[in-house]
Amino acid sequence: MTGLGERTARTLLSNLIETGLVTSTGHVAPVRFAFPLDALQFLLPELYPEAATRED
User: Do the Cβ atoms of 32 and 40 come closer than 8 Å?
Assistant: First the structure.
């Protein structure tokens, strides 16, 4: 899907899981998008502008 070699794609997927942008229930399970709330203002600024003004 990415056009990358297998080893590079596995590293990329691992990094995406580690940062919380995707999730999976196991090493052979499907991968799903999992946007963390803190990233919404950067990933989808026009869709979720409230994230920029959210107070914790």
Answer: no
Give me the pLDDT at residue 51, please: 57
Quote the CA–CA distance of 49 and 10 in Å, as a whole number. Answer: 32
Domain locations along the chain: 6-53
Spell out the residues 6+ positions from residue 49 whose beta carbon is closer than 8 angstroms to its own.
41
pLDDT at 25: 92
Q: Are 21 and 13 in contact (CB under 8 A)?
A: no
- Averaged pLDDT of the chain: 84
Sequential DSSP letters for 18-51: HHTSEE-SSTTSPPEE---GGGHHHHSTTT-GGG
Count other Cβ atoms within 10 Å, centred on residue 31.
13
